[in-house]
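Risk register update: the risk of archive-format incompatibility is retired. Evidence:
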Amino acid sequence: MSADQTPVAVAPRRTPVWIVATIAGVFGLLYAYFVWNAVTLLSYQASGRLGLNGLGWFVLLFAAVFPLIVFAIAFGVGWRRRVVVFAAVLFTGLTIVGVFWLNILAYAFAQGASLLG
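Archived output:
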């Protein structure tokens, strides 16, 4: 190899923005489903005859905010990675949110009286 044939560094290919936005949008709708369910449960419990105590407000508001936090973390971790890895990170966050939502439902149905005012 002569002096004029130096290897050229190839920049890594970036994922197009429209693909990232499409994947994030589809997963965002799935995360929004959990937020919508949490807000619905919160409104049903809060508008009941007894209302909610402080623990009830905290648990049910956190159930509505938790999917947003997980989506933001998963998006931040995965948006510069390959498409498959990005989708896998968002799917992993979605499964964490799903397990958390099942825990909230189990607690609300088994110990629901402790959330009421």
